[in-house]
UniProtKB/TrEMBL annotation:
<dbReference type="GO" id="GO:0005886">
    <property type="term" value="C:plasma membrane"/>
</dbReference>
<feature type="transmembrane region" description="Helical">
    <location>
        <begin position="12"/>
        <end position="36"/>
    </location>
</feature>
<keyword id="KW-1133">Transmembrane helix</keyword>
<feature type="domain" description="NfeD-like C-terminal">
    <location>
        <begin position="89"/>
        <end position="147"/>
    </location>
</feature>
<dbReference type="InterPro" id="IPR012340">
    <property type="entry name" value="NA-bd_OB-fold"/>
</dbReference>
<dbReference type="InterPro" id="IPR052165">
    <property type="entry name" value="Membrane_assoc_protease"/>
</dbReference>
<protein>
    <submittedName>
        <fullName>Membrane protein</fullName>
    </submittedName>
</protein>
<feature type="transmembrane region" description="Helical">
    <location>
        <begin position="42"/>
        <end position="68"/>
    </location>
</feature>
<dbReference type="Pfam" id="PF01957">
    <property type="entry name" value="NfeD"/>
</dbReference>
<keyword id="KW-0472">Membrane</keyword>
<dbReference type="InterPro" id="IPR002810">
    <property type="entry name" value="NfeD-like_C"/>
</dbReference>
<keyword id="KW-0812">Transmembrane</keyword>
Amino acid sequence: MDWFRDHVWETWLIAGAALAVVEMLTLDLIFGMLAVGAGVGLVAAVLGAPVVLQFVLALASAVGLLAFMRPSLLRRLHGGPDLITGPAKLIGAPVHVLTAMGPGRTGRVKLDGEEWTAAPYDELDELDAGERAEVVEIRGATAYIRRA
């Protein structure tokens, strides 16, 4: 215990470095905030503050960072646009009907520069060649469409 009392700032430095390493492994922004709190305790120790005050300052800064800074950092990190890939990105896309289709008959459409098999989304609807439509759903390799 005497060693800690004689080397308080070194203890804060070791604790801060250990917390920073754990943060690098977890990437949760929790241990990083605690490491910053340890840095505040280190500065207080170097300035000669009593040990109790060092702990209070370190704890207050870590809790403050966790409560106020971490949520906004997480929003910024995870707040980018959603990446939509595969068939889901085609929902709502315009299509050009190439062959007529109707109840029980599939047809062909030009979708995103490619020819697709298509069927009317409403089973009783009929679409003629040359009409404009939009994709409502993709099931397997068939696009279900309705008039635009």
